[in-house]
Write a structure and sequence with these properties.
Low-confidence stretches of chain A: none
Largest interface: A-B, 24 and 23 residues
Helix content of chain B: under 10%
Helix content of chain A: under 10%
Number of strands of chain B: 11
Structural class of chain A: mainly beta
Oligomer: heterodimer
Number of helices of chain A: 0
Shape of chain B: globular
Largest sheet of chain A: 6 strands, mixed
Strand content of chain A: over 45%
Structural class of chain B: mainly beta
Number of strands of chain A: 12
Order of helices and strands of chain B: EEEEEEEEEEE
């Protein structure tokens, strides 16, 4: 079974609007971490936001917030007030304690911000 | 914050030659580094885990004799693509657990990647 599932290969959003990128995960480990990375066309992977499995509140980092629904095993990324520079690939990732903190990545979502 | 430097960013080589890619942790020590391969518009595929002072751990299906990994120090890991062929053309990216989130969790910090083209 896939550890991380991103069902949206591509998304479009109007500039200044909010967008949600979906991510579901699969683990039986009670201790895990969820990450979102941004990969612009230059190729570098940029860390955006983190949510720990024991965190009670949804993580927020500036315009990024993580909608963490533990029972549904989802960790959607919400980008508010989209900017043209947000156009990139976005990868959801999970780290499990039980597998020695190995990282698993989803297949990514390509986001295009339309002016 | 933690920085991982990867060099070269782009390399073009002839078929049959070997290419070395370097991955350095600039402001932290990394006992473990990870090498990924990424095909266009695809996710990252973990190739191997590089361990300082010991042999790398390769993922299933990755040829260890083709992709030689050396982690000679706490700040440097190298990936050598030996006898490169056009099918080895890809984007290779390294990472290390060097950054921290605001809550203290480890973050994978990535190098900028190396785009290999084998003619």
């Amino acid at each position: 079974a896939q550890k991380i599932t991103q069902t949206q290969p591509g998304m479009f959003v109007q500039e200044k609007e909010a967008v949600t990128l979906d991510c579901t995960y699969d683990t039986s480990d009670p201790s895990y971490g969820l990450f979102w990375y941004k990969q612009p066309s230059s190729g570098e992977m940029i860390f955006l936001i983190y949510q720990g499995s024991y965190d009670q509140q949804n993580a927020t980092e500036g315009r990024y917030s993580l909608n963490f629904q533990k029972a549904r095993k989802s960790a959607n990324l919400v980008i508010s007030a989209s900017q043209l520079g947000d156009s990139a690939m976005y990868f959801c990732a999970m780290r499990e304690h039980i597998t020695g903190n190995q990282f698993y990545f989803g297949t990514g979502t390509s986001l295009t911000v339309i002016p | 914050g933690a920085v991982v430097s990867q060099h070269p960013s782009r390399v073009i080589c002839k078929s049959g030659t070997s290419v070395k890619i370097e991955c350095r942790s600039l402001d932290f020590q990394a006992t473990t580094m990870f090498w990924y391969r990424q095909f266009p518009k695809k996710s990252l595929m973990l190739m191997a885990t590089s361990n300082e002072g010991s042999k790398a751990t390769y993922e299933q299906g990755v040829e260890k004799d083709k992709f030689l990994i050396n982690h000679a120090s706490l700040t440097l890991s190298t990936l050598t693509v030996t006898s490169a062929h056009p099918e080895d053309s890809s984007f290779y990216i390294c990472s290390a657990r060097g950054g921290k989130t605001s809550s203290g969790a480890n973050v994978l910090t990535f190098g900028a990647g190396s785009r290999l083209t084998v003619l």
